């Protein structure tokens, strides 16, 4: 995605109405390899917003759906109430919850990761972004990532979770913005 498109998205996010608590919770969702993390980083740089990644919440490789209620309880609901978000990071090495992390309310907070645009988070969301990329390109991107060797053994399990979750949740259909992030 070019810099002009990122600037346009940033302007759109600033123009969106704030939710309760005065924050604008922006969710960035899409299948693995679609470029959610990269887009979140670029938007964060453009608007000076903090980014929370759902990778901190998934309770292991089978935890995509389990992370959504945690995101509501630990991040979205507190921010909507004007309180700090506070979550316990998942330690991927120990396969257990790690330290607590806090984030004070901000004008815009970006929540990125598979499941970020879930129906349960929509009441707290100012803008929901879905990142679209063709399957073949996503798979190519995943295999080119530095963390691919650790991810590869879990790819089929994670992909099955994504497919089941997105089919049931209809996340893409409810997105406010669909971003084509293909080459």
TrEMBL record:
InterPro entries recorded: P-loop_NTPase (IPR027417)
Recorded hits in Gene3D superfamilies, A to Z, give: P-loop containing nucleotide triphosphate hydrolases
Name of this protein: Uridine kinase
Native organism: Pseudonocardia acidicola
